[in-house]
Each structure stands twice: as structure tokens, then as C-alpha cells.
TrEMBL record, chains A, B:
Task performed by this protein: Participates actively in the response to hyperosmotic and heat shock by preventing the aggregation of stress-denatured proteins, in association with DnaK and GrpE. It is the nucleotide exchange factor for DnaK and may function as a thermosensor. Unfolded proteins bind initially to DnaJ; upon interaction with the DnaJ-bound protein, DnaK hydrolyzes its bound ATP, resulting in the formation of a stable complex. GrpE releases ADP from DnaK; ATP binding to DnaK triggers the release of the substrate protein, thus completing the reaction cycle.
InterPro entries, per database record: GrpE, GrpE_CC, GrpE_head
Pfam families: GrpE
Alphabetical list of CDD domains matching this protein: GrpE
Entries under SUPFAM superfamilies matching the protein: Coiled-coil domain of nucleotide exchange factor GrpE, Head domain of nucleotide exchange factor GrpE
Subunit structure: Homodimer.
Keywords annotated in UniProt: Chaperone, Coiled coil, Cytoplasm, Stress response
Organism encoding this protein: Lactococcus muris
Gene expressing this chain: grpE
Family indicated by similarity: Belongs to the GrpE family.
Chief place where the protein resides: cytoplasm
Protein name in the entry: Protein GrpE
Gene3D superfamilies the record matches: 3.90.20.20, Head domain of nucleotide exchange factor GrpE
Coiled-coil ranges from the UniProt annotation: 11-71
Length: 186, 186
């Protein structure tokens, strides 16, 4: 009986020991873990923040690339569209000279034909590149015409209408190379 | 004495318990930590890898932006440099016509003067845009000249030299608009 009691006591003691061990393990583990996990978590947070920062930088710069490409394309199109502007502007006086030469009295047929051919080829070259003569036979439009003289309006020439063209105007697509110099009725 | 022995036994037992607890705590803590730390470390590794990946993507795209801008600038410069190419090419026949008209016999002084002025203004306009006449008075150069006829070489005209220019050639900066049509000694 005493033996049995001793056994029981040992058992109870062993159980208590297990309990104490368990509790102590729990407590110590938690503490140690808290420290380590805290450290790891701050490193993780930092890494996550860095990842997000680089991702955002990447996204911003990607959007910027599209802007750069769009602007470059727009600029390219504009340069191509108006590429002939400078040379065309400089050629206009030659065309004026040709037309003045053609207006001279007493030209031989040969010379007249040569001048006409030259004028035609010049106008064709300009037209192929988008240069056209500005219309100047109706209402005066300050966007296209420059009034260099005014005359009183009459039945034939109503007010604010072009009466005569002194020098032809030209435009490249929608851009004025030079306005038409005109006489306007007032 | 029995009491003292009991006390001693208890003490020894308690020490043993402490030892066991310590060992168990150590073992269990290590195990638990390993698991948790392993998990945290894999999350951290993942986050670090992500951060690095986005950083690399950012760096690659930054380099790409510089390439895009460089290419766009090069293209822009090239378009601007040769912008007058098309119109200039189309104007050359007008210049030919003018020079043919000027070569006609029996022109009046007025007409001649008018044609000269037109020719000068045309050549000036072209020159201002970078168009120049190709030299064709020395050695034949297939990069600039096109041989349309050959004649036997003599003292005055050594072999592989230009003897006569049929039609003038022109270049825009370093680019040939059309080669000079020439007769070559052989």
C-alpha cells in the first residue's frame, strides 16, 4: 500500500513537473520569439516598403516613357508636315520674278514658252509639297490678306472685299507662308 | 536524520527538474524559433527579391529612356538636316529650264536680266538650305557623277576625267540629290 502511494506521489510529481516545464517553455519561447520576430518584422517591413517604392518609381517612369514617345511623335509629324516651309518661303521671290518676267511686253514665243515651263514646274514642285496660292477674290480676311491700299466701295466692289492683288500669297497646308498683298474696298 | 535525507532528496529532485526544464526549454525554443524564423525569413527573402526585381526593372527602363531620347534626337536632327530634300529635288528641273532659257540666242537685255535674277534667287534659296552644285571638273567620281558618254582620252583630257557636263548635279549637305551627268575620257 505504501508502495502504491509512493507510485501515485511520483506520478503526481511528474505531472507537475511536466506542467511547470510546459509553462516555462511557453513563457520563454514567447519572449524570445517576440524579440526575434520583432526584428524580422521590421526588416520585412523595410523590404516591403523598398519593393513598393521601386515599383512606384517604375510605374511613374513607364508613364513618362509614353509621354516622351507621344511628344517625340507629335514633334516628328509636325516637322515632317512643315519641312518644306523654309525653302518654299525662299523660293517665292523667284516665282514673283518669273511672273514679272512673263508680264514683260514683246517676248518671243520661245522665251515665253521657256518662262511658262519654268513657272509651271516651280508651281508643281511647290504644290506637291503642300504649298498653295491663297485665294484673294472675295471678302477680305485679315488671316490671309494684308491690305496695302484701300479704295472706295462701289457696285462692282462691295465694302471689305478684295479689289486687286498686288502680290500673291501662299500657304503651306494650314500655315501662311506670306499673306496676299491686296487692295481693299471700303 | 530521515527528515534531513528527505530534504536532500527533494533538493536533488528539484535540481534535476530544473535541469530537465532548461534542456526542454532550450530544445523546444530552438525548434519553434526555427519554424517561425524560417517562415519570416522566407517572407523577407521574397520581399527583398521583389524590391530588387523592381529596382532592376526601374534601372533598365531608365536606361531605355535615355536610348529613346537619344534616338528621337538623332531622328529629329536628321529630319531637320534633310528637310528640304523633297522640295529641292523637285525644284531642280525649274533651274534646268531657266538655264536652258538663258542659253537661247537673241534675248533682250531686259529678259536676260529677269531670267538671271530668277536664277540667282533660286540658287540662293537652295544654297541657304544647304543645296550645292556638285563639282565636275576633275577626276571622274562614281559617287557624284554619272557617265552618260565616253570619249577617247587626249593630252587635254586624261583618262577617267570629266570632259563635259550634260546636266549639273546637286547635293544637300552630304546627300546626293542627283548626280552630275557627264562625258568621261577613257
Amino acid at each position: 500500500m505504501a508502495e502504491k502511494k509512493k507510485e501515485d506521489m511520483k506520478k503526481v510529481q511528474a505531472e507537475k513537473v511536466d506542467e511547470v516545464i510546459e509553462e516555462a517553455v511557453e513563457e520563454l519561447t514567447e519572449e524570445a520569439l517576440e524579440d526575434i520576430v520583432e526584428e524580422e518584422v521590421s526588416e520585412l517591413d523595410e523590404a516591403l516598403a523598398r519593393a513598393e517604392e521601386w515599383e512606384n518609381k517604375f510605374l511613374r517612369i513607364s508613364a513618362e516613357i509614353q509621354n516622351i514617345q507621344r511628344r517625340a511623335n507629335e514633334e516628328r509629324s509636325s516637322i515632317l508636315k512643315y519641312r518644306s516651309q523654309d525653302l518654299a518661303k525662299k523660293i517665292l521671290p523667284s516665282l514673283d520674278n518669273l511672273e514679272r518676267a512673263l508680264a514683260v511686253e514683246g517676248l518671243t514665243e520661245d522665251v515665253k514658252k521657256g518662262l511658262e515651263m519654268t513657272r509651271e514646274s516651280l508651281i508643281n514642285a511647290l504644290e506637291e509639297e503642300g504649298v498653295t496660292e491663297i485665294k484673294a477674290d472675295g471678302a477680305f480676311d485679315p488671316n490671309f490678306h494684308m491690305a496695302v491700299q484701300t479704295v472706295p466701295a462701289d457696285d462692282e466692289h462691295p465694302a471689305d472685299h478684295v479689289v486687286q492683288v498686288f502680290q500673291k500669297g501662299y500657304q503651306l497646308h494650314d500655315r501662311i507662308l506670306r499673306p496676299a498683298m491686296v487692295v481693299v474696298a471700303q
